[in-house]
Amino acid sequence: MIKIDVLTFNPFQENTYILSDETGQCVIVDPGCLGEQENGLLVDFIQSKGYQPVYALFTHLHLDHVFGSRFVKEYFQIKTLAHHDDLGVLANTRNYATMFGITMDGDPASIDEVVGHDEVISFGNSILRAIHVPGHSPGSLVYYSEADGFCLAGDVLFKQSIGRTDLPGGDHQTLISGIQQRLMVLPADTVVYPGHGPSTTIGFEKQNNPYL
Q: What is the gyration radius of the CA atoms in the chain, in angstroms?
């Protein structure tokens, strides 16, 4: 059974998820830790739990989700996985950060392996299925655990909201269509853990999300 821990980092209040199971192996999803203090908080948390990181997974590659990517890749010596269609976003990360008054120590980590729609990522005794839902960014992925009834939605779907589509590569209708066709078909009790803010469920969003 997958255990879900969340740490919220950086000025954008981004949710960084640590998924682990009974083997002690874990994956770090969207490491948004920014600077030495937040990097230390992540390391201390993982070490206090005795977790063994095996991958860094990215729902998408916007700056607030990749601030800690180089740190976790180098510190834990793990591979980074993301969708191919977001790779072009990385080149401008430091420039975007500067626009928000944020100084990065270096460029975000390069991506070691690309993940496509319906691909499976395994760690410990657990599996996650990648669901490609573009529109917020071209390569946005949702990581779904059918066995444990949850998904990590990145910035695709929020409680009573959806991801913004006014950034480069965003498209409102593409996002709505993807949510309807690929997320709203999941079981109603599937818990949705977004990249920002509180969790929700597929059923709740079907009934209460004004965008859907």
A: 16
pLDDT digits (tens, 9 = 90+) for 145-198: 999 999 999 999 999 999 999 988 999 999 999 999 999 999 999 999 999 999
| Residue at token pair 């709505």 | 176
Q: Where are the alpha helices (DSSP H) in 25-68?
A: 35-49, 63-66
Could you tell me the CA-to-CA distances from 45 to 41, 42, 48, 50, 52 in Å, in that order? 6, 5, 5, 9, 12
* Structure tokens given for 36: 């030495």
pTM reported for the whole predicted model: 0.97
CB-count exposure of residue 137 (10 Å: 0-12, 13-18, 19+) = buried
Q: Which helix (H) or strand (E) holds 71?
A: helix 69-76
Q: Which long-range contacts (CB under 8 A, 24 or more apart) does 42-48 make?
A: 42/7, 42/9, 42/16, 42/68, 42/72, 43/75, 45/5, 45/7, 45/18, 46/18
Query: What is residue 3's three-state secondary structure?
Result: strand
